[in-house]
């Protein structure tokens, strides 16, 4: 009887195999982050075009005879060009084998944004009808933009590199502030075109102004010095003509005539374009940061490969665990002292590198988590007390000041009360 061949013994796994695998995994994640940065840049361009198209659509639906509405066809064409450009960075994202951690939430955000964009052609067609709803149009555009901004936020929330995460948070904040500025442009343009600004619209504009200020404060907290300086030199300077028209809208006393519509639209567009310039600078800094991190990781990998190369094919290194901290956790066996020391050095370097990344990321994610908790608390107040978003924010801030506590502590308390009430309702059922 012929016996089957003996199975080959499994290859011996070495410490350096996993050291290199650790760095290769980091590099794969940075490649994915680079593609994510390119996606964020494309989303930024598309959002900017959609904001302009929304403002011009609002003018059209408020006064179809307005000369400003003639710019709408070109704005629609610009949006379509930006939408086509979005598909390349989307295709570069590795959907089959994501290497940058759990990207399911980012992919879900992308799916939601693409689904919302499918409603755009129908809304454009609806806007052609004489009875088209300005509110429906505004809501459609704003929903699409909000979903696209959600992609940027998820990219920042899921980022595994602190420097890139800071750049993403800064970019998201200025994009969100610019979106609120775009909504203010659209509402103001509609008010001047219609010759009136009701109380609800006036309050909405005040809310948008307050929201812009908060977004810019977050941007200034996380932005690099060059971007902060660009803000102060550009949209941060202020414009007396813009402030005058803004006060007219807030007061509700609107002078008639198309001149005011065009003046408001031109001034607010110049302001938003200046914000877009800062946004572009942030995008360039983000992509440069991604490339620098990737180049540094690749260089470190090459250095580690040289350090861990054995002097001959039959050379084996044994590592044994010993009590103590991270620096003393491994010791080289007797047979491989030179290479063993090299392995220990690389393990320690990689461990320190990962520990530093984890500490910085923990700080950044704590900031994002606090922001999410505060937003949830505001939504709770808006739901149960009928407040607007800025009113809910002011209520939280007033409670914090009255009780001498941080805003996040008040938010946690409100959310805890909501949890208790929800649990009691479940028991009652």
Automatic annotation (TrEMBL):
GO terms for molecular function: RNA binding. Keywords: Coiled coil. Residues 347-374 form a coiled coil. Residues 354-415 form the ANTAR domain. Transmembrane segments: none annotated. This is Transcription antitermination regulator. It comes from the Bacteria. Residues 41-293 form the NIT domain. InterPro entries: ANTAR (IPR005561), CheY-like_superfamily (IPR011006), Nitrate/nitrite_sensing (IPR013587), Nitrate/nitrite_sensing_bac (IPR010910), WH-like_DNA-bd_sf (IPR036388).
